[in-house]
């Protein structure tokens, strides 16, 4: 073998050298992508664990019940809240809560009941759609009288 190399061989060696740099760049990109995927996976795992942990805890507001609420302005409300055997009358508005009055809860207070007096939204929507179909499809609902 001679020490002289042809220009073709020099080009091949240069091409191999530049492709080696490309492989190093791709390896660096792969490591960065893997690190990013690991961080995202850790965030998702922590989020799932926090959701499970919060659902496993007992309800913090179990002794708190809103008795009634009345709007007295655009953003202000007067709220009566029961805490254990005490009723608090609170003024709520503009990011503030102010205690207006405190009294013992009456003995004949109403039992807590779920809001079952109004039908669920899905049922009301299906009834409205059925009523609309019964009226007939020949009238245009967007047409003004």
UniProtKB/TrEMBL annotation:
<dbReference type="Pfam" id="PF04347">
    <property type="entry name" value="FliO"/>
</dbReference>
<keyword id="KW-0472">Membrane</keyword>
<comment type="similarity">
    <text>Belongs to the FliO/MopB family.</text>
</comment>
<feature type="transmembrane region" description="Helical">
    <location>
        <begin position="22"/>
        <end position="50"/>
    </location>
</feature>
<keyword id="KW-0282">Flagellum</keyword>
<keyword id="KW-0975">Bacterial flagellum</keyword>
<feature type="compositionally biased region" description="Basic and acidic residues">
    <location>
        <begin position="99"/>
        <end position="110"/>
    </location>
</feature>
<keyword id="KW-1003">Cell membrane</keyword>
<feature type="region of interest" description="Disordered">
    <location>
        <begin position="98"/>
        <end position="145"/>
    </location>
</feature>
<keyword id="KW-0969">Cilium</keyword>
<dbReference type="InterPro" id="IPR022781">
    <property type="entry name" value="Flagellar_biosynth_FliO"/>
</dbReference>
<feature type="compositionally biased region" description="Basic and acidic residues">
    <location>
        <begin position="136"/>
        <end position="145"/>
    </location>
</feature>
<keyword id="KW-0966">Cell projection</keyword>
<protein>
    <recommendedName>
        <fullName>Flagellar protein</fullName>
    </recommendedName>
</protein>
<keyword id="KW-1133">Transmembrane helix</keyword>
<keyword id="KW-0812">Transmembrane</keyword>
<dbReference type="InterPro" id="IPR052205">
    <property type="entry name" value="FliO/MopB"/>
</dbReference>
